[in-house]
Amino acid sequence: MLGVISDPTEESAVREFFELFKTPWEFYRKERQYQVVLCTSDAKPEPFSTRLLILYASEETEFDVKLKIETRLHDHETNLSLSAGSLPLYGCHATFLHPGVKVLSSEDTGKAIGFVDRLEDQLFARVGYDLFREVQCLLTRGQPPANAGTPTLELHIAFLRDLIVGCGIPLVEIPPLPDGYPFIVCLTHDVDHASIRRHKFDHTMFGFLYRATLGSLFNVVRGRLPWRKMFTNWAAAAKLPFIYFGIAEDIWLQFDRYVEIEQGNPSTFFVLPFEGDPGRSSEGRAPWARASRYDASHIASKIPRLTSAGCEIGLHGIDAWLDSSKGREEAKRITRFSGKETTGVRMHWLYWSEDSPVILEDGGFPYDSTVGYNDAIGYRAGTSQVYKPLQASRILELPLHVMDTALFYANRLDLSPREARKRVSSILDNAARLGGAVTINWHDRSIAPERLWDDFYVELLNDLKTRGAWFVTATQAVSWFRKRRSAVFEEVQFDSGGLHVKVSTSGGDKLAGLRLRIHKPRSSKQFAECADNQPAGYVDISLNERIDALVAL
To answer: Are residues 331 and 268 part of one domain?
Structure first.
């Protein structure tokens, strides 16, 4: 059991952090004994009954004064050097001059930002930043695009885990790994332009013609498009009048092809509710280009094929992010044509504010999947896990990690297919190492002319299958994380014979099970291993509804 002493203003961040790092914990009680006590800067230097005392603080504390720790304070952002990668800090930090074992250092100066030392009969770890304020920053404001590729929150968890196990203390957790799979993948599609036939003499039609003709030639010249795709685009442009007259098939109507490409792996389609409504932005009326030329009624005939293939129909919201009554109205419109209650939402153009979770929750949505980047791929919230926004009570956020337009648009990352594969592979490698869910957004028309990003998408699907990912809809992914959040550690007892653990969780569903992971402690009286972050051994046990087990350590 881990006891936490924190500032009252950090309570929501503490609770959410330990949903993501699912290990036995509670707020500190003097009458209890703990293997580990984790304190923030408000803790007083009183005796604690614990094997390991961890103090996170970016300011000088009474502990530092009492133990004569030489402390230097810094009021700027920095990056920490970890064996698992570079860890950005968004708040203040402190560096230390101390003879203890250095476990964290600044990439800029090499100075210690974390060390471990022995205090009589216990170990003491001093870490020079504010863990839960960093968590608050990540889960509200998020990371800038420059750090998009770093799963920052996951690295905070990994550091704390390695610190505890490296100090010779066994650890129990329920990792974000579905039983039998290395990670979860959610295939999603924002349906922005369901039909080119509905775009006559507007900016979308003229944009298509330019990109399919001169734009394609330009991309061939700069090596971004093969000749055969340029000719495909030219043929599509020439076919456009016949599409308008109903003689040729609509080249942007790609729902059936997605079902064929995904080969039984379910995906989630986010559908716009109303035609011709750009909605509002934070400054007032949104740009007219945000208005759609279709609505849910125009694709109603395609929905039965999608749902019979196991796909989900969600809301691609217009104003739901800033008006709960609008959200209910928009969801009702989707429900009318899908025949099922609309449970999830992703905002059109990823419109979002820090108040959106509460507004969407009031609108009745169980989950949102908007938190991501328009101009980058990666971890805006620093995590691959489904999380509860700190402002909200019930709604969960399924973060968005990979979006096609961010990869390939000339005014965004503008990557070649080879460069894009490298970027996406990095995210999949992180998922294989850290678990969680990778959420991918491939727009409805991205496998059609003039984009023709279908080859890349098929290669991505094959890579995910090879890696053994669990393909689920957005609702299924969120439901799995709700099941994990419902898990309760009823008893965790360590003794000379091993570990006795009792855990229960909600069950009775058709989702993959959970895993109970027991990390074995590293045996070193000098605790030097905690400085090198080398992985310790662990034991995994399948967990469905309940487990009562004795595990030898």
So the answer is: yes
Element of type H or E holding 428: helix 417-434
Report if residue 413 sits inside a domain. Answer: yes
Q: How many Cβ atoms are within 10 Å of 229's Cβ, its own excluded?
A: 20
Q: Are 527 and 167 in contact (CB under 8 A)?
A: yes
Q: Are 265 and 471 in contact (CB under 8 A)?
A: yes
Longest dimension (CA), the chain: 85
Does residue 244 share a domain with residue 160? Answer: no
Higher-confidence residue of 345 and 99: namely 345
The encoded tokens of residue 542 equal 């399948």
Q: What angle do CA 212, 419, 237 make, to 5 degrees?
A: 5
Average pLDDT score over residue span 237-264 = 98
Looking at residue 531, its pLDDT comes to 47
Which tens digit of pLDDT belongs to each residue from 86-101? 999 999 999 999 989 9
- Please give the structure tokens belonging to residue 21: 């790092």
Angle at 18 between CA 169 and CA 22, to 5 degrees: 65
Cα 201 to Cα 231: distance, rounded to the nearest angstrom: 23
Instruction: Check which CATH number belongs to the domain holding 153 and give it.
Output: 3.40.50.880
Domain identity same for 139 and 207 = no
Cβ–Cβ < 8 Å for 183, 437: yes
State which residues form the domain around 7: 2-173
The answer to whether the beta carbons of residues 186 and 420 sit under 8 Å apart is: no
Same domain, 397 and 453: yes
If one compares 104 and 525, the residue with the highest pLDDT of the two is: 104
Give the pLDDT score at 503. Answer: 95
Burial pattern 158-167, b for ≥16 Cβ within 10 A else e, equals bbbbbbbbbb
Q: What is the rounded distance in angstroms from the CA atom of residue 510 to the CA atom of residue 516?
A: 19
Cβ 208 vs Cβ 199: under 8 Å:
yes
Average pLDDT over residues 144-165: 97
- 257 & 379 share domain: yes
pLDDT above 80 (res 497): no
